[in-house]
Amino acid sequence: MFKEMLKELLYCYGPTGREKRIGELLKSLVAPYCDEVYNDALGNLIAHKKGSSGKKVMLSAHMDQIGLIVVDIRENGFLRVSNVGGVSTPISIAREVVFENGTRGVTYFETEKETVGTAQLAHLFIDIGAESREQASKLVEIGDIAVYAGNFAEMGGRFSCGALDDRLGCAVIVEALKNLETKHDLYVVFTVQEEVGLRGASTAAYSVHPDFSINLDVTRTGDTPKSARMSVSLGKGPAVKVMDSTSIIPACVRDFIYRCAEKADIPVQNEVLRGGGTDTGAILKTKGGILAGCISIPTRYVHTPVETADMNDVENAVKLVCALLAEEELPKAGN
Hints:
Order of helices and strands: HHEEEEEEEEHEEEHEHEEHEHEEH
Mean pLDDT: 95
């Protein structure tokens, strides 16, 4: 059941700024387990499960994915594009892409000017099979966004697909909601526009103003041949974020997560991410400051169509979320 739900989330269209469809799907999945579900002005999906402790906990994951936005339609029907989020040009060459209306195409580059290794985003284009600007304009408009076409591949206990960042975090939250027990007021937030500056998390955290927040996202690994040095591997458990380029997690929050993991016999890793950030960075700085931490799911090849994760890490992330929310005493600043 979890795998089918995950596939549905991965295949659902929802690039940054166009999250309506994925938001509607997530709403249908969490509504049975919450007392109210609503959208804020920016588009964040917020689900509230009432509690009795008098404390508010926010559990979040971003639902947007990276994409390619159409900036020009040429006379011969080819689409010139720019990036929405962290798109790598070499990785985006010779890929199948899909638009919100179902139009499909393939990407390539100006071979006369560049090679695959040196091509710049300005030399990338999408071919949707059109022979003229008039024909292409009937299918796609300036400002439309294409995403990598999804292809879920199972590899034993591991799996690969585009958009694991961060539909995987969303799936963990949905699954945890089915099983968790908590006395706290729980606000589940699926944020928008994370890939372009953690924007949705800022507005959501400001309006909810929780006593404590946990963000779910993916993180890179250091376990592939000659990879950049990083002490995170697939299959060794979810990672407890220590630091990234947007945040340093308070010691009291990390200690709280470690204690809960040890109590529930859940393996965890430490994560120091030297480049990149998560919604946690925005949440920590909201209002007068919010105690926040991040549970990261180890994922290889982030921001590609073949992001790869281990199902054991995912299952343990679900267990860890449930363990954290079951605790009556939340971390306190200065402890």
